[in-house]
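(Deposited chain)
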Amino acid sequence: MDKFFDFDKTLEVMQYGFVRDALIAAAILGLLAGVLGPLIVSRNMAFSVHGTSELAVTGGAAALLLGVSVGLGALAGSVVAAIVLGLLSRRSSETDSVIGVVLAFGLGLGVLFLWMYPGRASNKFGLLVGQIVSVDFASILLLSICAVVVLAVLAVIYRPLMFASVDPDVARARGVPTGMLSPVFAVLVGVATALGVQTVGALLVLSLMVTPAAAACRITANPLRATILSVVFAEVSVLGGIILSLAPGVPVSAFVCTISFLIYGFARVSTRKRVLAH
């Protein structure tokens, strides 16, 4: 146990500037993931998040190859993926197949770009499992700007988007522009997913974007309460994951996904007990 968590060493490492930067970035990311998560769950977009995260890797790998900002590359890749998925999957019946096709193509390109990149292997590995040492002031600035934009747009479209998520047929009949809301929300999710790749990595970004919200939605059906719980669960997962990973030097994503899974497991067990009690 001491090998995996040394309290004194953790406190010592937390004095470094890059760790404080990572915690700030993680807190912003947890807020974004927590707010978007319940809508992702209610709209059954978990697979879409996974596909978008893989395309963020493709964009990040292309950025590594070109020698430009990995964060901007991942952001560009995920936004392009969100737009493509939104345009190609107009009908819900073909959404999964379209995501699978785009995901496979993008992942193939990403593998090619990573193979062509002559730099350090740790940079390639960081795209998959996260790399908190890569978080700097520029990353926090980009994250902050994107978070403000995403939350501002979401505030404008939240009510009609929630209506369309709960009952799309009635919303369409009432004149809600569901055809426009879906791709806009997909882009918002793509931006948040790309920002998560740099912290927790593409392979486990679902643990932050979906799992906390899934746990919150198990506990309550109230949208406001679910959003608040989702933010709390996301913050605990990502901040707790970073702090626990400091001493052993284990990739952050290993702890983030474990904490979020435990929260989800607890939510399922507690709600099941409540149902059986009634």
In short: The chain is about 80% helix and 0% strand. The two ends are 40 Å apart (CA to CA). Residues 34 and 232 are 7 Å apart (CA to CA). The domain at 7-277 is CATH 1.10.3470.10 (ABC transporter involved in vitamin B12 uptake, BtuC).
